[in-house]
Each structure stands twice: as structure tokens, then as C-alpha cells.
Structure prediction request, 143 residues.
Amino acid sequence: MLDTCKHAITISNIDISRSVVVMPKKESESVPDPGSWLPLTPAVFHIMLALAEHECHGYGIMLEVEQLTQGQMRLGPGTLYRSIQRMVVDGLIEERKEANDSDDDDERRRYYRLTKLGLEVARAEAMRLAQLVKAARQRELLP
Prediction:
């Protein structure tokens, strides 16, 4: 069964109406393939690594990435928040307005956590990178 939604906009006594047909999802569309997001950009993968163990706010993610990479990668606010915005739209992470830990709660902060799909995509990227490292070792590029 299809649902039809009617939307009407009235501007200066002019009525513009339109119908929108909402199509049911096909079975194959309900579960996205984690591999379809690969390869991830370094910024996106590092954000996922930072969120793998716990939810965090933007500044905390920046600090976590810097710590994980021993200072080799620093995410600027522009890169961080553009990446986060795209990841939210793609369903890889979700935004929360409050932290699970009430001691760390600040009403101005937005907290982020991986979704189930995001975790699957992060695992798929980690496996892809592990295969590259294995190939590099076989070719004696790494010890």
C-alpha cells in the first residue's frame, strides 16, 4: 500500500498543492552494504575510531584523534564538523543533545555516537586497511 501525503502552501491567497507518493522500501534497500562507503576518508575513519568506545562531543573527538595518532593528525573544526554532518546524514553516527554521563553534560554541546551501521562500516574499513598492511608486509615495506 502506498501512502500519499498532501502538502499545501498558501502565499498571498494563492494555494499551491502537491501530492507526494511515499514508496515502500524494497527488501534489498533496508540493509545498506557497509562496503559501499569504502574507502573512508582519513578524517571519517578517525572520527569513527574516536567514537568506537563511547559517545563524545566535537572537541572531545578532536582531542581523541590527536591522541590516537600521537599528534600526527589534527582535525580542524571545519573538517571535523563537515565530516560529522555528512556522517549524520549517511546514518553512520547519530547526534544527541545530552550525554549519557550527566557529569559531562553541557547543554551547548552535541554528543555523537556510532550507529549500528557506522560500527559495521568502521569494521569493514579496518579489515580493508588490515589487508593493505598484510600486503605491505609481504612486500617487505613493513617489518
In short: The helical segments are 42-51, 58-68, 77-90, 116-138. The longest helix spans residues 116-138.
